[in-house]
Amino acid sequence: MRGHLAYAEGSPSTTLVLSAADLPSHVEELPQALRPVRRWLADNGLGALTKIALIAPSDTVEPGIAYRFVQLLPGKDPGIELRGSCGHSILSALIAAARYGWVPRLGVGRSYQVDVLNNGDRVACEIEGTAASGFTIGAHFLRTPPVSAREMLPTGEGTTLVAGGTPGAPPLPVSIVSAGNPYVFVDGADLGVRGADQLFADDPALFETMSSLRRQVAHLLGWPLEGAFPKIAAVLREGAGHVAVRAISVPSWHPTVAITGAVCTAGGRGHPRHHTGADGPRTGSGR
User: Fold this and answer.
1) Which ranges in 2-151 belong to alpha helices (H)?
2) Beta-strand pair 15-19/51-57
3) Is residue 169 a part of any domain in this protein?
4) Distance between CA atoms of 13 and 241, rounded to whole angstroms?
5) Chain-centroid distance, C-alpha 119
């Protein structure tokens, strides 16, 4: 089995890109089939890698690829998550696809299509620039046909009350939105955060509170509590028309904001209390 390692700037992990043809076509068989891959990663100093992309030439668009995201989960009995997608690994997969010769050589101005098998998204990627270290790629998440706002709300509600993230805490309003990936948005002020510096601080208590909220929403949706989805992000008003956003990835804070998270923030306007206006959301990285 041959693979490619590629890293998209801002991602919490390098992505291992594998040919889907080398693995079972039935997703139920993937956990067992990927165990030797995980052992190889651990034996070669890549145990911290959490993202695998399975790709093949597309049967529906040209030039393009079919892509399946595999999130590697930590734990004593590590598993995988196939429920969602990853924008950073999509970019890594496109670079690997060009190395396989499945799409024309990457060049400025050229566009490529990626069909996301996990959730049915189509992502249009355009090469915007090149440098010695790689490429600048714009990613456009397409919904064809368009979906209604209600279809973007897994609970059918703009705001849902869930139990507080700490024992005895009152219920908190959150917004559960699905665009690019399903996300839980919580107002940072409801978590006691008073500014961007506090939001991006190394605060284990904030991390655990948000993780607990995420697990409670997963339970509400009937999803595995220790899976990767839904993601969770805290948003904080930062001046007119802007919000600061901090999200959790697997297994720690996201170093920036996931591409899918930025799409979901814009699509859902972050949170009912934080309408971003025409300027859109501003994403921030941990410090």
Assistant:
1) 30-33, 35-43, 87-100
2) parallel
3) yes
4) 31
5) 12
Q: CA-CA-CA-CA torsion for 69, 74, 78, 81, nearest 10 degrees?
A: -30
Residue 237 has which token pair?
């008003």
Residue 211 CA to its chain's centroid (Å): 16
Q: Count the helix, strand and coil residues of the chain and give each as a percent rounded to the nearest 5.
A: 25, 30, 45
Residues 54 and 131 both lie in one domain: yes
pLDDT tens per residue across span 61-103: 889 999 999 999 987 677 999 999 999 999 999 999 999 999 9
Do 230 and 176 form a contact (C-beta atoms < 8 A)? yes
Instruction: Identify whether residues 176 and 265 lie together within a single domain.
Output: yes
Tens of pLDDT, residues 116-165: 999 999 999 999 998 887 899 999 998 767 777 778 899 988 899 998 77
- What is the Cα–Cα distance from 221 to 156, expressed in whole angstroms? 12
Q: Are residues 65 and 158 in the same domain?
A: no
Same domain as 252, residue 191: yes
Of 83, 113, 142, which residue constitutes the final position of a domain?
142
Q: Are residues 16 and 73 in the same domain?
A: yes
Q: What is the pTM of this model?
A: 0.88
Segments forming the whole domain that contains residue 163: 150-279
Task: Check: CB of residue 72 under 8 Å from CB of residue 51.
Answer: yes
**CATH number of domain containing 259:** 3.10.310.10
CB atoms within 10 A of CB 113: 19
CB 185 within 8 A of CB 173: no
Q: Are residues 134 and 159 in the same domain?
A: no
Same domain as 162, residue 135: no
